[in-house]
UniProtKB/TrEMBL annotation:
Enzyme class name: transferase
PANTHER family assigned to the protein according to its UniProt record, in alphabetical order: RBR FAMILY RING FINGER AND IBR DOMAIN-CONTAINING (PTHR11685)
EC numbers for this chain: 2.3.2.31
Coiled coil: 444-486
Keyword tags: Coiled coil, Metal-binding, Repeat, Transferase, Ubl conjugation pathway, Zinc, Zinc-finger
Protein name: RBR-type E3 ubiquitin transferase
Reactions catalysed according to its record: [E2 ubiquitin-conjugating enzyme]-S-ubiquitinyl-L-cysteine + [acceptor protein]-L-lysine = [E2 ubiquitin-conjugating enzyme]-L-cysteine + [acceptor protein]-N(6)-ubiquitinyl-L-lysine
Skewed-composition ranges (Polar residues): 1-23
CDD domains membership: BRcat_RBR_TRIAD1, Rcat_RBR_TRIAD1, RING-HC_RBR_TRIAD1
Length: 490
């Protein structure tokens, strides 16, 4: 069934190019609405298979000891294969992103050349020093030859200078990336050399801890949980931008980049968006206020719920919080307020006009991004209200606790859909024009409409509305999964 849906989506994506060539949005809406009528009933979300879920991701939590054992096994396996020391094997794995097969193949071709290309060399004694008491080029003090150490890049320094160099580097948080002291020498120093020279036990322990952290961070299938004071390490079968939920601290994050989960937006795109928001958010916050005037009677209204379907307490006019348009047009027609309308002649305008248009575009997407973030916070309040209302209903013999659980499930699904919807706006902001963007904006608009319908119903549902609300939940989740199947990059 999933293959059939994807094929139909492919045909729909191809057909959407006609829309960009001049066909009306109404014609495209009718075609895509018919597509959803044909396919929505065929999608069974009550018992989705692992392959059907676009967010399915296999991972397991590890404790520090388990992670250390796993790393040591990989290091030992490379030591056995290449006949190198554990510290050298560790540096090779770090330098080449744990690609063991590639390391073995290149090392067997030319062992010494491969190490030099990797900026890795083994310990070297003082065979290139002249005289019984040569001078250290760093401290300019003469020492016996046995006080000098170095690596096979040929640079020799006294033990005290190496010790001070290692101490400084470790205190700065550098461990596996410690380089030779010589100017512009990229050769890395191995762990056994560092631990032998270091004279402070506390720094030696610190080095081991930092080195372990570097190993975990560099491993493509391991990641520290970013939760506060959480020591869990997540192990995954593949390095993908998928959602991880830590069962220990309840943190939710993207496995690939470690920040908050951001589907369907890619890791590099969300980082660009967050950086831009940090730079421009004050301007956006200034323009986007917490209160707006009713577009009919102009009374000031404060948004106190997650739903964007607003009803004026004075004139009872139903309108959209985002675009201030009549809400009726959002339910029956294309959900226009989620799509940015660019000036078609912007390329011919002056630099100042283009700059204003660029700011206008950013503010459009930022306001909707921020609005969903605020709505998610307000949904927490809605959940608390539902719990209180359920207790009151049960106390008044208006159904049992089980009868009202569907409201809590609806509230949880609402947050899930709204979270995905929030992260569609950075995705849309950076998308190039074309048929694919047209398709994305349509699916985004449909999800937006269903989320707002669900939010409106959740806040007002009674026990007799269960069937209607559960049907709305199914529709909203199907819209969400369809969007992710088409646009979630793995």
């Amino acid at each position: 069934m999933s293959g059939d849906v994807n094929r139909q989506l492919s045909h729909m994506s191809e057909a959407s190019s006609c829309y960009s060539d001049g066909n009306s949005s109404e014609d495209m809406d009718e075609d895509i609405d018919q597509y959803y009528m044909d396919t929505t009933d065929d999608l069974d979300l009550d018992c989705p298979s692992k392959t059907d879920d676009p967010e399915y991701f296999e991972y397991e939590p590890l404790q520090v000891m388990d992670a250390e054992r796993l790393l040591n096994e990989e290091i030992e396996a490379l030591c056995t294969k290449l006949k190198v020391s554990p510290s050298m094997a560790k540096m090779l794995l770090l330098r080449h992103n744990w690609q063991k097969e590639e390391i073995i193949e290149n090392y067997q071709k030319d062992p010494s050349g491969f190490l030099i290309d990797s900026h890795l060399t083994s310990r070297r004694k003082h065979d290139n020093l002249i005289g019984p008491r040569p001078m250290c080029s760093v401290c300019c003090v003469n020492y016996p030859r046995d006080r000098f150490h170095g690596v096979t890049c040929g640079h020799m320094f006294c033990q005290d200078c190496w010790d001070m160099h290692f101490q400084t580097q470790i205190q700065d948080g550098i461990t596996t990336a410690i380089e030779c002291m010589a100017k512009e020498c990229p050769v890395l120093v191995t762990e056994d050399f560092v631990c032998e020279v270091l004279t402070q036990p506390k720094l030696r322990d610190k080095y081991s801890k930092f080195s372990f952290n570097d190993l975990i961070k560099s491993h493509p299938k391991l990641r520290f949980c970013p939760g506060v004071d959480c020591a869990v390490i997540i192990k995954a079968k593949e390095s993908k931008a998928k959602k991880v939920e830590c069962q220990t601290c309840k943190a939710s994050f993207c496995f690939r980049c470690g920040i908050s989960y951001h589907a369907p937006t890619e890791c590099d795109v969300i980082k660009r968006w967050l950086t831009k928001c940090e730079d421009d958010s004050e301007t956006a916050n200034y323009i986007s206020a917490h209160t707006k005037d009713c577009p009919r009677c102009h009374v000031c209204i404060e948004k106190n719920g997650g739903c964007n379907h607003m009803q004026c307490p004075e004139c009872k006019y139903d309108f959209c919080w985002m675009c201030l348009g009549d809400w009726k047009s959002h339910g029956s027609e294309y959900y226009e307020c989620s799509r940015y309308k660019e000036n078609p002649n912007i390329a011919n305008e002056s630099v100042h006009v283009q700059a204003r248009e660029a700011l206008k575009k950013y503010l459009f997407y930022y306001e909707r991004w921020e609005n969903h973030a605020k709505s998610l916070q307000l949904e927490e309040t809605t959940t608390s209200k539902i719990t209180t209302r359920t207790q009151e209903k049960v106390m008044n013999n208006q159904g049992t606790w089980i009868d009202w659980q569907y409201l809590l499930r609806a509230a949880a699904l609402l947050k899930k859909c709204r979270y995905t919807l929030q992260y569609t706006y950075p995705y849309a902001y950076y998308m190039d024009k074309g048929s694919r963007k047209v398709l994305f904006e349509y699916q985004q608009a449909q999800l937006e409409a269903e989320v707002e319908n669900l939010s409106w119903k959740v806040e007002r549902a009674e026990i007799t509305d269960r069937g209607d609300l559960e049907n709305q939940m199914d529709v909203a989740e199907k819209r969400r999964q369809t969007l992710l199947k088409d646009f979630l990059e793995v």
